[in-house]
Design a protein that fits this description.
heterodimer; A: alpha/beta; Rossmann fold; nine-stranded mixed β-sheet; two-stranded antiparallel sheet; 11 strands; 25% strand; globular; B: alpha+beta; Mth169, Chain: A; three-stranded antiparallel β-sheet; 2 helices
């Protein structure tokens, strides 16, 4: 099993993902430059965080036209797992692989802090290593993480069990006080219809070693590797 | 009531990084954006649009004066930016 990490101009979390996959998890991993047009050697694609193309126009709006994205869309449509973290999530939304949009945080501040998120269900290929309702501690670092979608989209996400992570208190309560950015329904991560594409704002790759404060993010990478 | 529609943009020759990035994207990744003809786009400039609404006690002259002050002192940095605006009378 091989992970591919897409590197766009302005990506800045690709090394963290590479390090965690390679050194901590012990998986095969390679970088994919955004001009690449062949993804057939990969089993999982990661779009890392960063500030692609300077966040100009709208977050993710330019990166989604990078040549590699055509292949990422094909890969996702054929059922391949795609994980977008932070700016990667924003790119997946602009590319139409996930519904809705991430707008500026409601308090207009950049938030860089640890948050708690609840695993809403452990049935997806990204959360098999967790318990349903398990509370995870992970850092966020973003200015545009305020998930917004129209009513119909939100209802579909709920009905189809596609809200995978919600911001919560340390006890797992999904309450407004635990919402760091104004996201509707405290949404921190969502799945596509086929449940093989995940976009999330918190950084699991920054929560992969105890010495750095938390290893709660490891479960996502281990789940993708098929570990239990 | 009067409203002012203001557009602020960069003066000629000032680096407009957002426009440059967008133009580069159009040239580099035309597939999926333009069906054809990206080579005919010679330049892109960005700007900001502001709409200022005044209350009923403000007449046209006053609205113009207030808009100018807002543009000169806050909405633009006159070293690098220029502005233009038009006033419109609208019913509430």
């Amino acid at each position: 099993m091989k992970f591919g990490i897409v590197v766009f101009p302005g990506s800045n979390c690709e090394h963290d993902n590479y390090y965690v996959l390679n050194k901590v998890v012990g998986a095969k991993v390679e970088y994919i430059w955004h001009k690449e047009t062949a993804l057939n050697f990969f089993d999982v694609i990661i779009l890392p965080g960063g500030f692609t193309y300077g966040d100009y126009l709208r977050v993710g709006a330019v990166a989604r036209f990078s040549p590699v994205m055509k292949e990422v869309v094909k890969f996702a449509n054929s059922g391949g797992p795609v994980l977008g973290i932070c700016n990667g999530f924003q790119i997946l939304l602009e590319a139409g692989l996930l519904p809705g949009s991430l707008i500026t945080n409601d308090h207009l501040r950049f938030r860089c802090q640890d948050v708690y998120i609840k695993v809403v269900n452990n049935k997806s290929c990204f959360t098999k290593c967790y318990e349903t309702n398990q509370v995870l501690k992970m850092p966020i670092a973003h200015y545009s993480g305020n998930y917004f979608a129209d009513k119909e989209t939100i209802e579909n996400l709920e009905r189809e069990d596609r809200i995978l992570f919600q911001y919560c208190s340390s006890d797992g309560d999904v309450v407004p006080e635990a919402n760091p950015n104004g996201s509707m329904l405290n949404i921190a991560g969502i799945l596509n219809e086929k449940k093989n594409v995940l976009g999330m704002m918190p950084h699991p790759e920054r929560a992969a070693e105890k010495i750095l404060g938390s290893e709660d993010g490891l479960g996502i990478f281990n789940s993708l590797l098929g570990k239990n | 009531m009067w409203i002012a529609k203001v557009i602020v943009s960069y003066k000629t020759g000032i680096l407009d990084p957002e426009a440059k990035t967008i133009h580069n994207a159009l040239i580099s990744f035309p597939e999926g954006i333009l069906s054809e003809g990206y080579q005919y786009i010679s330049k892109i400039e960005t700007g900001k649009y502001f709409q200022i609404s005044f209350d009923d006690s403000v007449n046209r002259e006053k609205a113009e004066e207030l808009t100018k002050q807002a543009c000169d002192k806050l909405l633009t940095n006159p070293v690098i930016q220029k502005y233009k605006f038009q006033l419109e009378e609208v019913s509430k």
